[in-house]
Amino acid sequence: MPPKTMILNSLPSGRTTRPSNKDKHPGEIVKPRPRQKPSEVTQERHEAEEKEKEEQERRTKAIQTAANIEDELANEDMDRESERVAESMARKEALVAKKKYASSLSYALYSQGM
Predict the structure, then answer these.
(1) Strand, coil or helix: 22
(2) Mean pLDDT, each 10-residue run in order, the chain (114 residues)
(3) Where is region (Disordered) located (predicted)?
């Protein structure tokens, strides 16, 4: 049996790598992320926490603004309703007073014999 080195030597010498493929690594299509330093990780976490805190504050402020608007509208509605009720009560009192006056007037006229 011939030695294995002879088989390798017997390959055709015409096979070579193209110059454009010299520095390419087809086995590393998706390279792994390089490891980060602990200080970089801590800084990224801190930035993410700050960003989340700012977002939460923005949401809280928007909710508070909406709640204030709703409170103002509710107060305006209550004011309008109380005015409407007061006007309605005044009309009813005026109507009752008018009926009493008419009733007393008709009684007076009736008692006088007219």
Answers:
(1) coil
(2) 54 72 72 86 96 98 97 96 94 88 74 67
(3) 1-61
- pTM for the predicted model, two decimal places: 0.47
Long-range CB pairs of 4-11 (<8 Å, 24+ gap) are none
For 34-53, the DSSP string reads PPPPHHHHHHHHHHHHHHHH
CB-based contacts of 36, cutoff 8 Å, min separation 6: 44
Distance linking the first and last C-alpha atoms of the chain: 153
> Of 77, 108, 40, 10, whose CA–CA distance to 2 is shortest?
10
Rounded Cα–Cα distance for residues 42 and 36 (Å): 10
